[in-house]
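Late entry, written up from scratch paper. The run itself happened at the end of the previous shift, but nothing got recorded in the book at the time, so transcribing now.
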Amino acid sequence: MGTSVPSLSVLCGDVREWAACYDGRPFTALLCDPPYHLTSITARYGAPGAAPAQYAKDGAFSRLARGFMGKTWDGGDVAFDPKTWASLGEHLVPGAILMAFGGTRTWHRLAVAIEDGGFEVFDTLMWLYGSGMPKNHDMALYIDKAAGIDRVREITGPATPDARTWTGYGTALKPAWEPIIVARKPREGSIVNTAMRYGSGGLNIDGSRIGADEQGRWPANLLLSHSPDCTEDACTADCPIADLGHEARFFYHAKASKEERDVGLEAFPPVAAGGMSGRHDGSLGAISYAHNDHPTVKPIALCQYLAGLLLPPETYRLQAQLLVPFAGSGSEMIGAMLAGWENITGIEADEDYASYAEYRLRWWQHAMQETVSRAPTEILRAMRAKARNLKLPGMDAA
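Output as recorded:
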């Protein structure tokens, strides 16, 4: 592992305002997890007497609404506005590759916005996992409720003839994958000219092969995650890896564990899981607590793999810069650091999440140097074995 210390910056602010003011060196690539804007357009604008949703001077469906899990940052339309991506693209070198996570219900709008913002969409990765929870309405339960009968599905059966007719029907499938849009800023001249002048435009194929060495499998646009209940010895029945893949064929890693989400944030007070999912004390089921209440934390190993695909040849790495808008609690930045990026800038609008990102980055940077490892699982295992709580300068939360 190299001895250089990465340059990491987390800026708190709106990505569009940052783009309007930034006058520094252009970035080599972009990796992000933007808002999915999962609240339906009907729910936002479909109230009786509401004006119809439409494109306006300030962008598509631009009136702010509360989005996924009640998070304001998931409302609005920042990720669906081509101007957002055009403004970010102004600060990328020609040929720069962009990767952006999306939601299965809304990623088409994200892709169109990226394309209309001046990028060329050339692939979409599919990240499969087995731990999604369906956002479903039991139709029989709701039919009974409409008839004035409140019941608990697990305790009592359908109470009306219509409910019995619709027993077993729901409104949603279990989510089990997320798209990752891959796009490129147009090259300047030929592939060769762009690569030689800017160190951009290519994917790090050999550095991302699946297997122990450069003879491993060519990286695929299919990525897998273990189910949470899988062990090192066996997979659960609903694990996509058990059904579809093996480490010699596809990249795979577990979804972010509670330890991975929280490590480095011990100085922050724990938050009830209800704050992440909209549940509350007294609702059905147990309430768990976590220091990191961001609801969509991505696995660091997955982010490391994606950032590794974007990593330019070693000759260009000291000058190369990775831009991470919508940085959240910092997983994409941590993954990029572990992948070998030397210069990483993250932008996050939420002040709390920006603080999380800073603290998590400090912990992982220290742990990477302490363990002389870049593998997230190995780092966590080694730090756990040391059985100590790191106390880094400036780590006391106010």
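The two ends are 34 Å apart (CA to CA).
(Scratch paper discarded after transcription.)
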